[in-house]
Amino acid sequence: MKRPEVGVYLPQMGFSFDDIAHRADRCEELGIDSMWLYDHLYGPGVPEIASLEAWTLATALLCRTRRLRIGHMVLCNQFRHPVTLAKMATTLDQISSGRLALGLGSGSIEDEHRRAGLPWGTFAERSGQLGETLEILRQAFTDGRIDFTGVHFTVTDMPIEPGPVQQPGPPLVVGGIGERYTLPLVARYADVWNIPTYALDVIDDKVAALQTACEAADRDPASIVMSIEAVLALAPDEASLPQVRKLAEKRFGGPGFGLHDTDLIGTPAQIVDRLGALADRGFGQIVLFTHDRASDQTLELLAREVLPHL
């Protein structure tokens, strides 16, 4: 079985550019597959803490690396017009020689929309906008031209040149588990489906729901890479495990992080077994928060004592 792609999720809240660039450099040097950022105008719930803008940051990181894939988990669809986003994505895919992953969602924080004067709308409205954006992106990537009339967007004979390096385009990652709106969009458009941390207790139910959505869309579910987002608490040995567990509980023990649903708390040998079990369940991509926000020690342990054994 092919080893799943393993990435590090690094929400940029409270980090300087040098902090993040150092972690990207280490991921690049160590052979970790990907790094993922968040897309918020400020840290959710903590607007006073510094937080670098998502797309500018990804561009800078892709310019300083040569192998590492970088994406967002996930971009907020309301922040960028889909034509502008298509042009941004094809340009950054060119700049990075095909290393952009394009994660996209319908938005998750109403407060930042209100502060910025951006429309929030209902979940149904935001999902409709997301579906139209995904259709526009597909046209841009595969046809090099957009001609689209929808409820939310109308685009007339818009060229997108140059096109992306990756064919048929940067992988479209759609995150979420909603059975009424999100999973039908995954079935129709996504290359990768990401299960967020808040849904780790209902994985089997949501996998079954996606299969149903794929049947309705006449899509082979095997053509969609299943991705999972989870917290990793990696200890170098048994003696240090209690302290690692304590820090993980402090930072990620609350509702929504699913710390104990995947139980990725342990030594390298234990984590190899648990990540292997996720791969056996069909997950081709695993995106990890780390308990210590991607310290050198944890990145090195992950790269040298976990990944080679998957």
Please describe what this structure looks like.
- The protein is built from 11 helices and 12 strands.
- The chain starts with a strand and ends with a helix.
- The strands form 2 sheets. It has an 8-stranded parallel β-barrel with strand order 1-2-3-5-8-9-10-12, surrounded by 8 helices.
- The longest helix is centred in the middle third of the chain and has 21 residues, at 123-143.
- The protein has helices at 17-30, 54-64, 82-95, 110-116, 123-143, 182-189, 203-216, 241-252, 259-262, 268-280, 296-306; strands spanning 5-9, 34-37, 69-72, 75-76, 100-105, 145-149, 154-159, 172-175, 192-195, 225-234, 265-266, 283-290.
- It has 310 residues and is an alpha/beta fold.
- Helix 1 packs parallel to helix 11, helix 3 (82-95) crosses helix 5 (123-143) and helix 6 packs across helix 7.
- A hairpin with a 4-residue loop joins strand 6 (145-149) and strand 7.
- The protein is globular, with a radius of gyration of 19 Å.
